[in-house]
Amino acid sequence: IGAMLGGPDAYAGQTVTGTARVTEVISDRGFWIEDAGQRMFVVLGEKGAGSTAGENQVNVNAGQTVRLSGHVFSRADQIPGGGQLEADARQAIAGQPAFLHVNPRDVTIVP
């Protein structure tokens, strides 16, 4: 997380995979993760055509550890469906050097 926040241009659009602790869930499409004292926001992608609403939801709670894979972005307008983000998610992204955009299927809770 620290490397992505410190040099987001080097990671822009790249796929990253890792494990981190969930520190705060702010909406059904966004939560904060932390690793080694660095915090980053995760935006869950929209469900695709023909999918069910359950595919867009990940039931994570603060304190859980997740393994995820997603793309690094620096602005909401760079992601598909970014214009439809909830106000809470937009506010979390505002001012952040980078955030992760993750397909809900690519989030796994680590026991």
Layout of helices and strands, plus pairs?
Elements: H1 2-6, H2 8-11, E1 15-27, E2 30-35, E3 38-44, E4 65-73, H3 87-93, E5 99-110
Parallel strand pairs: 3-5
Antiparallel strand pairs: 1-2, 1-4, 2-3, 4-5
Give your account of this protein's structure.
There is one protein chain. The protein is mostly beta strands. Helix content is 14%, strand content 42%. It has a five-stranded mixed beta barrel. The protein has helices spanning 2-6, 8-11, 87-93; strands spanning 15-27, 30-35, 38-44, 65-73, 99-110. The protein is globular, with a radius of gyration of 13 Å. It starts with a helix and ends with a strand.
In short:
This protein is mostly beta strands and 111 residues long. It has helices spanning 2-6, 8-11, 87-93; strands spanning 15-27, 30-35, 38-44, 65-73, 99-110. It starts with a helix and ends with a strand.
Describe the biggest sheet?
A: 5 strands, mixed, barrel
The structure class reads mainly beta
Question: DSSP helix count?
Answer: 3
Q: From N to C, what is the helix and strand string?
A: HHEEEEHE
Radius of gyration: 13 Å
Widest β-sheet, arrangement of strands? 1-2-3-5-4
Mean pLDDT value: 86
Bin the strand percentage.
35-45%
Cα end-to-end separation: 21 Å
Can you count the beta strands?
5
Tell me which oligomeric state these chains represent.
single chain
